[in-house]
């Protein structure tokens, strides 16, 4: 066995006396363990939330979106249609025409985002898993229906089973000089509520889906579209298809992938995760200050032992190594314990979902957790760096005492 490690382990596991130094070392070990466990758990929760959002947006939102590079809308004609349909990887196209609209139901009113979509939207089944009430339909027997978010339904008390009340939609019309009649300053269309969906707050509280023809009449934009939402074959590479489609459509259009559409959100999550990692690393570093003080006191306590080792031929390097390993044993014991506990808690939550969010949602009830081994590796590396930084000064102090003994 390595001599330096053997002596360091004896100092750590000594049962002859439990001094104040031992108590500080144990406290340091526990704090490092708790900090490491908390860091692993929190990072795993962030990974779980990011994975949940990516899965959610990957299901509800399209793989690719085509929009006008200049202006809000474009004319969707055969030329654009042929170019888009020329790529075999594109299996479905949803035409979209949307804008903010004042909607009324019974005696309540509010502004919502009305999104006119073609029938392919229903065929894709993007809302099937999120329908909470009514039917998932846009048209039936030449009657138009609206699919509303649950937040909109709550605000207006919409009942899809009540055919006596329709949703009234008001949209500003073109105001011409000399127009005095207020009723001609807006367009009004009525539509029956068909179903209610619950996906996520930003969707539920803002979106109302209607047939594309209904939206054309409401917005007075025949043949115009704001977006083309494209679904790709499972084996297709979105980035490759995006590049080829962008080349086909030219600079007049902008093609974006799902990750680019929600890029700001993913970046915010990444920044939050980084600052959480930084914060907990600082907490572990503060906990390691106890290791620094306990090692300094241990150096003072073991002066006689150091003198004996020096007299027996121990070098400065050996003495430095002993106390450096002592600090590593304390820190790594705590870190390894915290690492195991953090992984255990994360895997239990991942499998059984014991800790819930305290509310029933359409997405998930328990906190999502996902362990990424890169996080584990970075945590271990940060603890190694912190331990070396906090242990090296006391170890060097011990080696200096050897040099002074030699001079005497």
UniProtKB/TrEMBL annotation:
Keywords: Cell membrane, Membrane, Transmembrane, Transmembrane helix
Keyword Cell membrane carried by entry: yes
Membrane topology category: Multi-pass membrane protein
Signal peptide start-end: none
Localization annotation: Cell membrane
Family as reported in the entry's similarity comment: Belongs to the ABC-4 integral membrane protein family. LolC/E subfamily.
Protein name listed in UniProt: ABC transporter permease
Organism per entry: Marinoscillum luteum
